[in-house]
Write a structure and sequence with these properties.
single chain; about 425 residues; alpha/beta; Aminopeptidase; Alpha-Beta Plaits; nine-stranded mixed sheet; four-stranded antiparallel sheet; 12 helices; 15 strands; about 20% strand; globular; binds zinc ion
Amino acid sequence: MTAPRNRGSAPDPGHEPDHRGAPAHVPSFHEMWQDLRPLGRNPETNGYRRYAWTAADTDCRAWFQAQAESRGLAYETDRNGNQWAWLGDPTAGGAVVTGSHLDSVPDGGAFDGPLGVVSSFAALDRLRARGARPTRPLAIVNFGDEEGARFGLACVGSRLTAGQLTVEAAHALRDADGVSLPQAMERAGHDPEAIGADPERLSRIGAFIELHVEQGRALAGTEHPVGIASAIWPHGRWRFDFHGEANHAGTTRIEDRRDPMLTYANTVLAARKKARLAGALATFGKVSVEPNGVNAIPSLVRGWLDSRAADQDTLDLVVAEIEKAALERGERDGIDVAVTRESFTPVVEFEHALRDELGRILGKAGRADLPVLGTGAGHDAGILSGAIPTAMLFVRNPTGVSHSPAETAAEDDCLAGVTALADVLEGLACR
Ligand SMILES: [Zn+2]
């Protein structure tokens, strides 16, 4: 295979993998946060619109490169547009890598992604301040296009690297204006020629740790600002088609109607109930109606179900029960119901050995009995877990709100996350 292209400053072969040579002043967590804050923020909503390969994304990428270079780290962009900042020799093998993403969903919050990247730089600074001497290479990564807001597929940067997205499929991705992914990359200054699987790069990584704001309230109300991830829940999307009969809203007697909206509405209620009883999640977040007229009984209602659960059996059961409820209600309403599974992602269990090691390291550092949490959200760490040992740390989110401008975390909790990440990096890379 070809060597990964190095589009940034070349790794300095004489760079010592320790604190010597580090600049005396580097931006603090707070300063980095303030620097990043205005980039890609919509002034009307206060939400972030940092979509892959747009001007806002380019600004975030320039910020990352500047942070790397201000610390004397060797900066590079890999063939898939992910950014790396290295302390130590990237080719030595067994690297301990941390990081997350800087892109956002439409009108996303400030923390989902950036908290992991900013905390990574701050944790590295903490290690250097402690005088810790890494015996393994360390790297900070910003994975491109994690949210999939522009091209409709999440985790494109890590999927390409892990070989979970073929080059052909990547070329077929288009944004709402018909711009293809390679065109968008090229316009943003990244040569798309070499996109594709990068097993050689992955083979040089011994562990990947992603710190992320919690997207839920498991830590809220506990004494713990930080938790460890156990698994990413299995999840999928199902399309429910409810076929009825279009007719006049003013002249069709109630008893003569075949109204699919009624069946759909009952299915939404059933989904909520079945999910609640099983401890799972079920959401109809998107719906389309034909003919979509105020004074017309619909002929077709199409609703998309997103469902997630801690384990596959529970998820299968909940979706089967929702489907059954839809079919039964459809029979009563004279509606034909068809259900199609559109996508499915099985459970991702983070490697137990690495998770246990994180628990031990943090226990020794005074954080015993950290909560171990499952999550319903996807992450680059989940994509990479098939190829390399990965783990995640979650930072407490008082409201649990995510993918919204209301997403937040207390600065003290963020700094506790930095300390935990620094402890983990020291425990893994400085033995
Ligand atoms: Zn994220």
